[in-house]
Design a protein that fits this description.
globular; seven-stranded parallel β-sheet; 8 helices; alpha/beta; Rossmann fold; 253 residues; EC 1.1.1.-
């Protein structure tokens, strides 16, 4: 048997990561680069992207753009593909949570949440898929959530998009996996990111969330590395249409 470690080697692959300026998106970009991929990070904050490039070094480029701008997708795809060629891997980590209670949801907040969390992963993937089809190889990794299946206070818009991500992932697999493109999602539990700052700033709440897991703690950034590399590499070649919960067993209890 060949050494199975090569299954996780991303040497020669090109990865695009949205939401790469901070949080799990930034961690994803760093992890993919460490596994050998050329990485293009996409986010709105140019300064944060510059620091990401400095952290990774050679083999990393960045594009400052709003992935929720649907009209800008063609130009964005050109910019993403310019440094290293068309991506083999796309990780959709960009997201927003307005945390508006159901009675207080505004049309603007609703539309913003759907545009970034649900519409952007589909339309950017749709635009990148032709190049993946030409290679008969591609990896799409969406970001699901505990709220893909659970209802949290103040999460009606966010939860609706993350439930949609679950079905979007399955539908992407049905459409594109016959062409060598797998589509899966990671469902993180509570990780210390900008998006969850309100949770971690409340120590009692953070401890309650940790107690809800089977493992007994909240997520650390390195906990995402293995699952991400699995879904982005040849190691998951026969896995598609799945939501992998990386939540310490939160959803198991």
């Amino acid at each position: 048997m060949d050494d199975p470690r090569h299954l996780f080697d991303l040497t020669g692959r090109v990865a695009c990561v949205t939401g790469a300026s901070s949080g799990l998106g930034r961690r994803a970009a760093v992890a993919l680069a460490a596994a050998g991929a050329k990485v293009v990070g996409v986010a709105r904050r140019a300064e944060a992207l510059d620091s990401l490039k400095d952290e990774i070094g050679a083999g990393a480029e960045a594009v400052a753009a709003d992935v929720a701008d649907r009209d800008g997708i063609p130009a964005l795809v050109e910019a993403i593909s310019a440094p290293f060629g068309a991506p083999d891997i796309v990780v959709h980590a960009a997201g927003v949570n307005t945390r508006q209670a159901a009675d207080d949801v505004t049309p603007e907040g609703w539309d913003q949440t759907l545009a970034l969390n649900l519409s952007a992963p589909f339309f950017l993937s749709q635009a990148l898929v032709p190049a993946m089809k030409a290679k008969n190889w591609g990896r799409i990794v969406n970001f699901a959530s505990l709220q893909t299946t659970r209802a949290f206070p103040g999460g009606i818009a966010y939860g609706a998009t993350k439930a949609g991500i679950g079905q979007l992932t399955r539908a992407m697999a049905e459409a594109w996996s016959p062409h060598g493109i797998t589509a899966n999602a990671i469902g993180p539990g509570f990780f210390p990111t900008e998006l969850t700052a309100a949770v971690f700033n409340d120590e009692a709440r953070a401890q309650r969330n940790a107690a809800q897991t089977c493992i007994g703690r909240n997520g650390a950034m390195e906990d995402i590395d293995g699952p991400l590399l699995f879904l982005c590499s040849q190691a998951s070649g026969y896995v598609t249409g799945q939501v992998l919960m990386v939540d310490g067993g939160f959803t198991a209890k």
